[in-house]
Amino acid sequence: MIDLRLLRDDPDLFRASQRARGESESRVDDLIAADEARRAAVQAFEALRAEQKQLGKRLPRAEPAEKAELLTRTKELSAQVKAAEAAATEAEQTLRRAQLAFPNLIEAGAPAGGEDDYVVLREVGERPDIDAPRDHLALGEALGAIDVERGAKVSGSRFYYLTGVGALLQLGLLQLAIAQAVEYGLTPTITPVLVKPESMEGTGFLGEHASEIYRLEADDLYLVGTSEVPLAAYHSNEILTLDGPVRYAGWSSCFRREAGSYGRDVRGILRVHQFDKVEMFSFCPPEQAHDEHLRLLAWEEEMLAKVEIPYRVIDVAAGDLGTSAARKYDCEAWVPSQGRYREVTSTSNCTTFQARRLNIRYRDADGRTQPVATLNGTLATTRWLIPILENHQQPDGSVRVPKALQPYLGGRDVLEPLATA
Prior knowledge:
The chain contains twelve helices and 18 strands. The radius of gyration is 27 Å and the shape is elongated. The mean pLDDT is about 95. It has two domains: about 5-100, Serine-tRNA synthetase, tRNA binding domain (Helix Hairpins, Orthogonal Bundle), CATH 1.10.287.40; about 120-415, Bira Bifunctional Protein, Domain 2 (BirA Bifunctional Protein, domain 2). The longest helix is centred in the N-terminal third of the chain and has 37 residues, at about 65-100. By secondary structure, it is an alpha+beta fold.
């Protein structure tokens, strides 16, 4: 939810943001009109209510002749106040719907354009020179690490089992992420995976991403696609004490319908309905959000370095940001079998957008309550197994284990194919 005061003061700033996102500028005017209509409706209601109160004070002291006139006016006012209150309530609801549908103001410097208009900031690491690289599924099946056939048998397409070293790799990766998070002072958290509608709406996921979310209609609860949602809602309707950023690292299973991606990346575990993830989340004063965003990105890159994966960092274009983000950086790992980079982490600065929807505030230096800024970033997820297996594969089908992960696999430095594979 955007700052209406800023919208009133500088509507052209929001028009420019909409242009950069490739969205209609007319929505700015629609929101301004809804805001003005609400203010006018509230003002009309309050004026009538004030007159009603004044008449209520005059009645006991009025002369009989005047009292009859006042009673008539009181009766008229009662109906007018009731109608004005209903109009103010309707205008308030109309404004809220318009606010909830309006995307965040992009951060200065974010690239304009759509999905293909990102800017590559840097490439890190050396891509391995592999003749005829096997993909992660072929490697995983040979290692006894991934079983999509039985996953489909039990649950349907885009489900899978991680078995043996595959399970150990994922658990090791996520534990490594939690260990790094704790090292940097983040509070480790295991979050709920079912949330109320207000939590999902508050983080901005019931707009353009609603089709990707699983909903349990009987309970009116949603399965989370990221622990960003329960972490953001953790402090909803609270006033925080912020000496600096308050940071969490949430471990959860995540669920996505992957609506609209039918036929794309269906092989293996790239686009699946269930996966595990460690997500960083930060609450901080708005003026610290830009630097905090770069800090989260640096921690993501540190994790990628630990598992020895070549990657690049991109500055995501405004039209590909999503509703809540003002700016987003992705880290994309090199995938040898595809000969291209694929996203494995994302970190977003959501400024005060989510906090306004979830009513999360802090007290500034003057003691006034203000909305906090919220930021999120992926520290590790199941998808990382793809570049780990593919970049560390060897000609005989074995896979080297990055040094940082070896303690989680019993000290093994190489994973060998099963004899029956």
